[in-house]
Amino acid sequence: MKTFLWTFMVMGALCNVFPAFAQTSDSAPLDDRGYLVGINDVLQIDILEPEVITRLERVAPDGKITFPYIGSVAVQGLDVPHIQKKIQDELGNGYLKFPVVQVSLKESNSKQYMVYGEVNHPGAYPLEEYSTVMRAISIAGGFTKFGSSSRVKVLRPRPADKGYDTIRIDMDRVMGGDSKQDTKLSAGDMVVVSEGVF
Q1: Domains assigned to the chain
Q2: What is the pTM of this model?
Q3: What is the Cα–Cα distance from 38 to 9, expressed in whole angstroms?
Q4: How many helices (H) and strands (E) does the chain have?
């Protein structure tokens, strides 16, 4: 019962503080501020003038996308504003007169974190700018009836070594307002929620 109430409080708090979670749409672009595009990410590219063209392009393993008039465009490692300017400049280089281009991030597949264990929807999720442990657990559907708020940890890949560093999270303190406990996630992190001890 305690776990159920805690999960309910988390979901309610997140919906109040971050109402976008309650109103997300599959058609809405993701928050791409500062995001560096990688392989398998999906971009929506709209030419608004002088003719209207809309395309969804997945970044290929070579880090490029293909677009009408200009062919292959290297986009891996660039942020969305730079990609937008690059496509607009190349289209304007003799292909279209004064093109107006808009680029947005539709799917973030190159940078993900995982949520495992006693959550309702375990799996891989796209890493966003404000992805934290509390948000991750909420997006994964909250704790199951066996999940324990006191047995949450983050396994973080070591950059130059095999294995993981373990970061233990005190979710009760997070819900109590201790934002320092709500660790910001990095690509490849695994949030693990273990069963409580009954």
Answers
A1: 42-107 (3.30.1950.10), 111-195 (3.10.560.10)
A2: 0.56
A3: 35
A4: 4, 10
